[in-house]
Amino acid sequence: MEHAVAPMRSAYGDSQLHCFSFGAHEEENVLCVAVDGYLTSRLVRVQSACYTAEIFRSVDCDCHEQLDQSLQRVHDQGGVVVYMLADGRGAGLLTKIRGLSLNASRGLDTFDAYRELGVEPDPRDYTRIAAVLERLGLHEVKLLTNNPRKVEGLRRHGLVVDRVPLEIPPTTESLPYLATKRQKFGHLLELVPGASEREGVDSPSPEVRD
Ligand SMILES: [Zn+2]
After folding, report:
1. Integer Cα distance of 71 and 81 in angstroms
2. Which InterPro entries match (predicted)?
């Protein structure tokens, strides 16, 4: 594992940006935004890339808001955001976009679309993440997540993990995706619509189908 680190100034504040490299390919890098105090707070977010939301600002999922809120919280309290360059829950961009296409054409949710494509719905592996956290001196973490698999994935590598919820209130657009996360991926979500932070969007009162 190769490693480089540099100070970073961002809209959120000052941090150290780490790059841990596990191979020659771009997606084999793991990025960490580490904010002073993380060894005390032990606050950690493990986020996998969602280029559609984070770069193009698609509103069909909550990934951008989760990243935004995580960065705010680690800058407030000290902590680390670990960023995996693995879109589509590690299945890759082509699979993700094929899944979105099936969603649009046939109404399949992400879980069923991945199955239709012959792909594991959540093939993420946390070996590298665990190695990176250990390297940063984090053996016990408070993990910002709603995903029990992520908690289990890190525990399997010997980390001690407490879960800290990170729920973004659903919008009309994101609700179907979030409902799938809850029903089929077992995410611990309340799905209570809150005041939307986006201008011009009313808070919906959608029905959640179980
Ligand atoms: Zn997303």
Report:
1. 7
2. GTP_cyclohydro_II (IPR032677), RibA (IPR000926), RibA-like_sf (IPR036144)
